[in-house]
Amino acid sequence: MYKNFKISLLLLLSGKGNRFQSDIPKQFHTLLGKKIYLHTLDAFYELDIFDEIILVTSTNWIDQVKKEIFNYKNIKVIQGGKERQTSAFLGLKAILDTDFVMFHDAVRPFVTKKIIIDNLDAVIKYRAVNTCIKSTDTLVQIDKKGKIYKIPDRSTLMRGQTPQTFEYKLILNAHEKALKNGIFAATDDCTLVLDQTLIHVVGGAETNIKITSPSDLILAEKILKSRKQSEELKNNNISSNKSLKSKIYAIVGASGGIGKEIIKLLKKENAEVIEISRTSKYKADLEDFSSIEKVFDKIYKKFGKIDGLINAAGLFLVKPFKKLSKEEIEKLIKVNLLGLIYSCKEAKIKENGHIINISSSSYKDGRKNYGIYSAAKAAVVNFTQSLSKETPNLKINVVAPGRTNTQMRKRFFPSEKDSLLLDPKDVALKIINVLKNKSSTDTIIEIKK
């Protein structure tokens, strides 16, 4: 219910996705570990304003969709048609009782709350609404021979998106009229009501993309990651009352500058801290897999599964690549990357527990005279992203701090001003907030001065 009106949503996911060049329809591909249509569904479902949501899909996918939305309420799954128009009409006929109906493409997962609410506010007043954005490109019209015969004035053109929202009786009558007139392949519901009413336009968004090709999927991943990072940073800047008392966390790299600060804050939160380093009670050599294996076996025997693992160990060496010895190269890779990987492999972590891997801002750009370090930190980011996709039952994120005031860094850059460097306490605080807040997974949390 919205402003005392009944609202229904038709989410169209019957498309075959021929342009996607895949046997699997595009809406069923995954985007950061979650199917595209479920990202789209959640954008509407979480608003809790729709009286009924109908998913229109093809016969071959009905059972699968029903399984995947089992925990959702007030959702109906029906069979669609070969054409979009048919699917939309079948969806309309499946609606029991409503005042207004909203249509949306299942492969537009980035629709915003503002776009949805703007549609609803407008349809109550205008009966028919389309979501559009300005065209920044010059559009041309061509003839059958592929020759330009007209270049329309760009200022009068807009690009249509979804959602499109209508008074229910208006759009149902328009569909029935179209069928009587032999119109069966309309690709846009607005075209069916043009002769019956004026259509109001609300603003869309450039990010409200329709995923129709593999290249769109790459762009979609970037948009989603950017959103998740923004949300994560927002969450991490909000204090939380969630208690970490009696939670058990293993800190690899307990003797380092950032590791020490993490331990202090965790103890302040009354968490149980397992310190892992060459000199701690739980000793481990990150250059030796068997050492890592043994220490986590020891931890499991005493504590059982733990609540989280924080990989804070690092080795920094500033030296031209050509002057690095074989031993130095191997040590840099083992401590900064392999030790972290092995720790993630051997740690036994509870359901919905955390893994936080500490990378560095240098993951984005190979730095002069410490390219091996930069390469290892970039690998940490990619490994963390991969692990999060393989392990959806854990919250797995990577923290990438900028230059931080630790003894390890000061050893090579003694003249750097402290005012230009991050305080290890601030990095540790961000990590504590990740543990305390409802955090997502597969997120790069960048910390800047």
What would you say this structure looks like, in words?
With 449 residues, this protein is an alpha/beta fold. The chain has two domains: 220 residues, Spore Coat Polysaccharide Biosynthesis Protein SpsA, Chain A, CATH 3.90.550; 203 residues, NAD(P)-binding Rossmann-like Domain (Rossmann fold). 37% of the residues lie in helices and 21% in strands. The protein contains 13 helices and 18 strands. It has a seven-stranded mixed sheet, with helices on both faces. It has a seven-stranded parallel sheet with strand order 14-13-12-15-16-17-18, sandwiched between helices. It is elongated, with a radius of gyration of 27 Å.
How are the elements arranged and paired?
Elements: E1 7-13, E2 30-31, E3 34-35, H1 36-45, E4 52-57, H2 62-68, E5 75-79, H3 84-94, E6 100-105, H4 113-126, E7 128-134, E8 141-142, E9 148-150, E10 158-167, H5 168-180, H6 190-193, E11 200-203, H7 214-236, E12 248-252, H8 257-268, E13 272-277, E14 282-283, H9 289-303, E15 306-311, H10 326-346, E16 349-358, H11 371-390, E17 395-401, H12 407-410, H13 424-436, E18 444-447
Parallel strand pairs: 1-4, 1-6, 4-5, 7-11, 12-13, 12-15, 13-14, 15-16, 16-17, 17-18
Antiparallel strand pairs: 2-3, 6-10, 7-10, 8-9
